[in-house]
């Protein structure tokens, strides 16, 4: 595999790196971890991360995609859509059409594109069964587009590791540090990087499963502390990323 020269990551909070921090509190995330691995293999990689929490498919299509393509990347990672899956209302079909347009635009650039199917939220989130239909629809769209355009596809939906509680942060939607390491390993496998394999998807046989009582208490706390504020924010039209800028808005050395 030849090395990449310019890598741009686009998306929302997952790509921004929420809940994955280094010793000084700075965000890391799977995209940073993937960039570091690529730079180790082929030093000199230029890397930008345009992702911002709260962004939906339309936001990425209108803002991040043009900025990313202006940098002439030869590698793009895109993980986007969960904020559309969880959004109240009937605009989901429009979001899926926007996703098709987004993918077609990236494909026309000639860059290598890595995209990601979402995990089975019915296994991790208390209201996951309510969202399961939308997750299936967006995953079908992602998978079909990846095959049509020749993208590298990460399948989180069928990975046993994605069902383990410690893969996720307290909100059960964003990856923990362990989760981001697994996401980066999955992208490395999709790219066929030396030393990569499918081990990231395997379940940890030593992982402890919570008792029914612990699970019930955890679900109640999640509903109170995570779901209710999220729905209230949607009703008020408040985005978690309002006013935030990308943390790596320009191409720069990975360690820069």
UniProtKB/TrEMBL annotation:
Its domain of life reads Bacteria
Q: Where is the SGNH hydrolase-type esterase domain?
A: 9-182
The leader peptide range reads none
Xref: InterPro entries = GDSL_Rv0518-like, SGNH_hydro, SGNH_hydro_sf
Q: Which residues form a coiled coil?
A: none
One Pfam match, given by its short name, reads Lipase_GDSL_2
Q: What is this protein called?
A: Lysophospholipase
- Organism field: Mycolicibacterium litorale
């Amino acid at each position: 595999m030849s090395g990449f020269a310019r890598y741009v990551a686009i998306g929302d909070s997952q790509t921004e790196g929420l809940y994955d921090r280094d010793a000084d509190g700075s965000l890391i995330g799977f995209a940073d971890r993937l960039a570091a691995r690529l730079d180790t293999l082929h030093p000199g990689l230029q890397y930008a991360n345009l992702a911002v929490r709260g962004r939906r498919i339309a936001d990425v299509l209108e803002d991040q995609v043009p900025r990313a393509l202006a940098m002439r990347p030869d590698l793009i990672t895109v993980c986007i859509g969960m904020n559309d899956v969880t959004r109240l209302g009937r605009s989901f079909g429009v979001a899926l059409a926007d996703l098709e347009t987004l993918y077609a635009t990236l494909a026309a650039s000639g860059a290598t594109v890595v995209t990601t199917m979402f995990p089975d939220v019915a296994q991790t989130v208390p209201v996951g069964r309510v969202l399961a239909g939308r997750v299936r629809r967006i995953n079908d769209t992602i998978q079909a587009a990846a095959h049509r355009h020749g993208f590298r596809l990460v399948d989180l939906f069928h990975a046993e590791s994605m069902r383990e509680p410690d893969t996720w942060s307290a909100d059960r939607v964003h990856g923990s540090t362990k989760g981001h390491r697994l996401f980066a390993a999955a992208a490395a496998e999709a790219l066929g990087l030396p030393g990569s394999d499918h081990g990231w998807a395997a379940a940890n046989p030593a992982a402890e499963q919570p008792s029914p009582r612990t699970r019930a208490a955890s679900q109640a706390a999640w509903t109170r502390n995570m779901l209710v504020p999220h729905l209230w924010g949607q009703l008020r039209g408040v985005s978690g990323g309002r006013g935030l800028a990308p943390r790596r808005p320009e191409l720069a050395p990975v360690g820069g």
